Amino acid sequence: MLITLTWDPPTTKYYGHPLENLAGYYINHSTDGFSWRRLNSTPVTDNHYTADLPPGYHAFTVQAVDSFGNISQPSNLLELTIPNS
């Protein structure tokens, strides 16, 4: 099933200063909630990501990365279950 994740882009750093050097996002995926893998090897620059997923449990987090390679903490967990056809 084709799904599209979307999120609100961050505008400030954790201490409130403007975020001016955002390079993109890494999308993390798990099918069991314990083992995670990054879906993209280079940061995506849009605030959405589309994936074709099989039936079953899927969990995602998103991490922002700046132009220096600093990676944020993971976003809140998004979980979904795709039913069998």
Structure description:
The chain has 85 residues and is an all-beta fold. Helices cover 0% and strands 44% of the residues. Strands 3-2-5-6 form a 4-stranded antiparallel β-sheet, with no helix packed on it. A hairpin with a 6-residue loop joins β2 and β3. The N and C termini lie close together (10 Å). The model has no long low-confidence stretch (mean pLDDT 91).
Total strands: the figure is 6
Tell me the strand percentage band: 35-45%
As a whole number of angstroms, the C-alpha radius of gyration is: 14 Å
Largest sheet: 4 strands, antiparallel
Category from helices, strands and their pairing: mainly beta
Query: How many H/I helical runs?
Result: 0
The 3D shape can be described as elongated
Short summary:
This protein has 85 residues and is mainly beta. It has strands at 2-6, 22-30, 37-38, 48-52, 56-66, 78-82.
Sequence-ordered SSE layout with sheet pairings:
Elements: E1 2-6, E2 22-30, E3 37-38, E4 48-52, E5 56-66, E6 78-82
Antiparallel strand pairs: 1-4, 2-3, 2-5, 5-6
What are the defining features of this structure?
85 residues; mainly beta; 4-stranded antiparallel sheet; two-stranded antiparallel ribbon; 6 strands
